[in-house]
Specification:
The complex is a heterodimer.
Chain A lengths: L5 E6 L5 E6 L11 E6 L12 H11 L3 E5 L16 H18 L5 E7 L1 H10 L5 E7 L7 H12 L2 H9 L3 H12 L4 H5 L4 H17 L3 E7 L11 H5 L9 E6 L9 H16 L2
Parallel strand pairs in A: 3-4, 3-5, 5-6, 6-7, 7-8
Antiparallel strand pairs in A: 1-2, 2-4
Chain B lengths: L20 H19 L4 E6 L1 H12 L4 E7 L5 H13 L9 E2 L8 E3 L2 E3 L1 H9 L4 H4 L4 E6 L3 H11 L7 E4 L19 H13 L4
Parallel strand pairs in B: 1-2, 2-6, 6-7
Antiparallel strand pairs in B: 3-4, 4-5
Helix pairs in contact in B: 1-2, 3-4
The chains are: A alpha/beta, B alpha/beta.
Chain lengths: ~280, ~210
């Protein structure tokens, strides 16, 4: 592998956001103004789950792309925000401010955002209204469940011996659901459910993805079978947002036997290889 | 204050499959030299967590004239037991991809455990690793802090209070921050324990 050079960067108006810049080691001709920004997965700091972000940044570098592994405010070495923004707005502001600093540094004009889990959600939402972002790589972003999701889900449960054992023992979720339905008659539905309205979330995300594709942003989206509670088939993104014209902008992958944090080195290698292939076409 | 990542971990160069305990001890040596150089001081304090604590104790014994204080946070007492603990934790994981994977011999053998490589060479080193006052001979100001259950607390207390170690000891129970909470990718910050370690270092009140 080519020699990889890395340096610490301090980003944002207060220089409070810490990132590790992996400089391009391979041929970067024609892509000198592009920087890949890798966003935290949940609260895991900039090295990523099982060091995924380190391996990814160094592979991108060898392929001639500049990459920054960023710590959002309050994560890793970055300071907390000085304002009172909620966590989502704070993360989105952090990303915008980090990109601002990188642009001010002179060389960078265009960005590719990559993220897993919450990082994927932040990347997609930020890309909806930032002209500088030309592509996003999303691993296990949140997408609403669909009719086919439920069919898959219940079919798999019905074909599992353990589900029937639970059913006859009275431990099956169906019994809990029935109990909840009976209780619901006597409780305030809003208080009982909590959280945002799923229909509202669906409309919000549909608008986000619609804005992203209208701007012509390329999308790499990969889903793991580990998050069965959220998604369980490759095309769920398309079915969840039928009015969004993803067309050829979208490269879609499904890793059925892979866990959410890519624990196996073979799985990480497979994911990185797909991202490199996708990025090479941009 | 200098925080660093060992070779093949975190932001540092290299791959974990090429790492060794001997190499990581040498990384601690480099960190000591670097900090002495940057800060212009003759002695430094070492703070280590789990395996880092055990390695720090070994380095402190070797470089006792340059180490002013040593804080061991839930140190690994038996390397062999630690490997078994890691294997058990990996076997308990829900997803098959997270369970122990045998690595190929030509790649150094051993396992992939909980997302990291544990090659045969490091397994052999861990099997030899033991933290004991008789062979460590803590000579600088040493403070042990334990957050785990009564068994670990008793083990560490007897080690710390051994005449050859003469270390101070504190138990601050709490959920170990290196173990993932029930929800994926979440954890708890052991605030009380961190304040305690900072106080020990700043005030030197452990003696």
């Amino acid at each position: 592998m080519a020699h990889i050079a890395e340096s610490v960067v301090l980003l944002g108006p207060r220089r409070s956001l810490v990132g590790i810049h992996t400089h391009p080691a391979g041929d970067s001709s024609g892509r000198e103004d592009i920087c890949v920004v890798i966003i935290n997965a949940g609260i895991i700091h900039r090295v990523g789950p099982n060091r995924l972000h380190v391996e990814l940044a160094r592979a991108l570098s060898a392929a001639g792309l500049s990459a920054v592994r960023l710590d959002l405010s309050g994560i890793g070495d970055s300071d907390s925000r000085a304002d009172s923004l909620n966590p989502l707005d704070g993360a989105l502001a952090d990303i915008r401010e980090a990109l601002d600093t990188l642009v001010e540094s002179g060389k960078v004009k265009r960005f590719i955002l990559l993220g897993l889990c919450s990082g994927a959600n932040h990347a997609a939402i930020r890309a909806a209204d930032d002209e500088r972002i030309i592509a996003i790589g999303l691993v296990d972003p949140f997408i609403p469940r669909t009719r086919r999701y439920y069919l898959n889900h219940y079919f798999r449960r019905m074909t599992r011996v353990g589900s029937w054992k639970n059913f006859f023992r009275g431990d099956h979720p169906a019994w809990q659901w029935l109990e909840a339905q009976l209780l619901r008659r006597r409780t305030d539905r809003t208080l009982e459910q909590g959280g945002p309205d799923p229909a509202e979330v669906r409309r919000y995300l549909a608008r986000i993805y619609d804005d992203v594709v209208r701007r012509g942003v390329r999308i790499f989206a990969a889903f793991t079978g580990d998050l069965e509670s959220q998604h369980n088939y490759r095309e769920q993104l398309l079915d969840a947002f039928p009015d969004v014209a993803f067309g050829t902008l979208l490269d879609l992958y499904y890793f059925g036997d892979v866990d959410h944090t890519f624990s196996s080195s073979n799985d990480r290698t497979a994911l990185i290889s797909l991202i490199l292939k996708w990025a090479s076409k941009l | 204050m200098l925080r660093f990542d060992y070779f093949g971990t975190g932001d540092s160069g290299g791959d974990g499959s090429d790492a060794s305990l001997r190499g990581w001890e040498s990384d601690i040596d480099t960190a000591i030299d670097e900090l002495k150089d940057i800060a212009g001081v003759g002695r430094v304090a070492l703070v280590g967590l789990r395996l880092g604590a055990t390695l720090a104790a070994r380095v402190a014994e070797r470089r006792n004239r340059e180490v002013s204080a040593l804080v061991l946070w839930d140190p690994i007492v038996s390397g062999q037991a630690y490997v078994e603990e890691l294997l058990e934790a990996a076997r308990m994981r829900e997803h098959a991809a997270e369970r122990p994977i045998q690595r190929e011999l030509q790649s150094g053998g051993g396992y992939e455990l909980l997302g990291f490589s544990l090659p045969d060479a490091m397994l052999r080193e861990l099997a030899q690793l033991r933290l004991a006052p008789s062979d460590v001979g803590w000579v600088c100001k040493t403070h042990c802090v334990v957050s785990q259950g009564p068994e670990a607390e008793a083990q560490l207390r007897s080690l710390a209070e051994h005449p050859k170690a003469a270390a101070t000891f504190a138990a601050i129970p709490g959920r170990p921050p290196w173990i993932e909470a029930d929800q994926i990718m979440t954890g708890e910050v052991p605030v009380a324990l961190l304040h305690h370690v900072a106080k020990v270092l700043v005030d030197g009140t452990h003696r």
